[in-house]
Every structure is written in C-alpha cells, then in structure tokens.
Amino acid sequence: MSNKIKNYLGIALIVGVLMLGLSIWSIAGSVGKSINPSSLRSFSVTAEGKSTQVPDVAEFTFSVITEGGENLAALQKENTEKMNKAIAFLKENGVKKEDIRTSQYSVNPRYESYSCGRPIYANGEEKAGPCPPSKIVGYTITQSATVKIRDFTKAGDIVSGVVKSGANSASSLNFTIDDPTSVQDAARAEAIAKAEKKAEKIAKDAGFRVGRLISIYESGGNYPVYYGKAMGIGMGGDAAESAPAPSIEPGSEDVKVNVTLTYEIK
C-alpha cells in the first residue's frame, strides 16, 4: 500500500472519530437537558386558585359513659343498652348505617388509694408506716361513635336527640365535604389558568417567548373543616330533656390550591 493511500485512510479515520465524538456529545447534551431541567434557560410562575363550596356533611361524636362498682358485666350491659338506644334513634331519623362508626370502646378500672401511715420510731430510728396497696373499687366504660349527618335540616334535632336517647356526651361538631376531589380540581384548574396567563405576560414584558412546560408543582388542596359553634350540650339527664335543639349552620369556605409552573425560555 502506497504512502498516499495510507494518508487518505488516516485522514478518513480521524474524520470518522471526530464525527462519532460530535454525535455522542450531541446525544449526551440532549439527554442531559431532558433529565436535568436546570440546564435549560427557564423561569417559574406561581398562582393560587380557589373554589368556594358549601359543606355537605355534618359530623359529630357522641359517647355513652357508664360508671359503677365492681360488677363489670352489669356495667357493660347498661352501657350497651344505652348505646343501642342512641343508635336506634339515629337510624329512625334517617342516618344510614354506614354513616355511624364506633370510634372508641374502653374499660378503665377505678382505684381506691390509701395514704401511708405516719412514721414509726423504733430504737431511735424512723421507719415508714404500713401502706396498703391500691385496689379496684369499680369501672368506667366509655363507648363513642362518630356520626355523619347529610340532611342539615335535621342536624340540630339529631345532635340534641341522641343525648336524650342515652348518650351523656356530644362534641366535635364539624362540617366537611364528603368528596373533595371536584372542589380541588376546580381550584387547581383556576390556579393553572392564572399561572399560564402570568407566564405569557412576563415573557411579553421581558422580550422572550414561553417555551415548553418543564415542571409543575402543587401545594395546598386540603379541604377545610368547619367547626360548629352550637355544641353546648354537655351531659345528659334532666337538663338534656328540656334543652332546645341547637341551631346549626354550615356556612361556606374557600378550598385553595397553589401551583408553580416552570417553563423553558425561547
């Protein structure tokens, strides 16, 4: 093989290596940009969207608390009968079985404690007097249930009526949205629309064009809980029999979602 041909082959080999290197570098750069958005010229905009909704569920907790002596079986029977009576009242007033959930059942002993006797002096030394151990003198049974009320026109009568039917404690009235998905979707759509409009305005003012959307970050979206103010029911008994049903108003509240959109700068 002549030197001329060898030179041509050498040049061709060098050119091929250079072209291969350029191709690899170009591919690596493209992949790097697609994986790491921070390598692009980019900018971010943030906007908030909200959706005003009226709660569709009122939720509260009631308890049957039974306290007595050492006959635990009798106390359990009494507690169960009162709870069953309260639940029967709820069902008679349109509350569905699936909207009644037992949230607590506890049996706690009650102790009688003795104070230790006075110090005893023997042979000039002070010694502790006898101190009998504590003993169980009775039990307290607490059974609680959480209830969802979907008909707000009955909410006041149900809350007060459950106390008259056997419960001796009612608390934690709050208003919620049973399925918050649609509310959050509406707030998110508004936030994205505002962010897109904001991005176009910034690009126009700064003299560049908005490129492709690189990322989107969302925060918020937790639907609020609306706490009622008319829950001064307290314990049952004669007072509960004469107490009027509380006035319950759900009101309304804003569900808010914040989004941050990051765009490529063209």
**For the record, what is the CATH homologous superfamily label of the domain at 56-113 and 129-178 and 225-249?**
Protein of unknown function (DUF541), domain 2
Secondary-structure content class:
alpha+beta
CATH topology of the domain at 56-113 and 129-178 and 225-249: Alpha-Beta Plaits
What letter string, H or E per element, gives the SSE order?
HEEHEEEEHEHEEHE
List how many beta strands DSSP finds.
10
Shape: elongated
Q: Report the CATH C-level class of the domain at 56-113 and 129-178 and 225-249.
A: Alpha Beta
Rg for CA atoms: 36 Å
Distance between the termini: 54 Å
Strand percent estimate: 25-35%
Mean pLDDT figure: 79
Q: What is the CATH architecture term of the domain at 56-113 and 129-178 and 225-249? A: 2-Layer Sandwich
Low-confidence stretches: 30-37, 225-240
Strand order of the largest sheet: 3-6-2-7-9
The assembly state of the depicted protein chains is: single chain
Biggest sheet, open or closed, and with what strands and sense?
5 strands, antiparallel
Number of helices: 5
Q: Helical amount among residues, as a percent range?
A: 25-40%
InterPro entries: 26kDa_periplasmic_antigen, SIMPL/DUF541
Organism: Candidatus Jorgensenbacteria bacterium RIFCSPLOWO2_01_FULL_45_25b
Keywords: Membrane, Transmembrane, Transmembrane helix
Protein name: SIMPL domain-containing protein
Description:
By secondary structure, the chain is α+β, with helices and mostly antiparallel strands. It has a domain at about 55-115 and about 130-180 and about 225-250: Alpha-Beta Plaits (2-Layer Sandwich). About 35% of the residues lie in helices and about 35% in strands. It has a 5-stranded antiparallel sheet with strand order 3-6-2-7-9. A 3-stranded antiparallel sheet has the order 1-10-8, covered by helices on one side. Helix 2 (about 70-90) runs antiparallel to helix 3. The model is unreliable at about 30-35 and about 225-240 (pLDDT under 50).
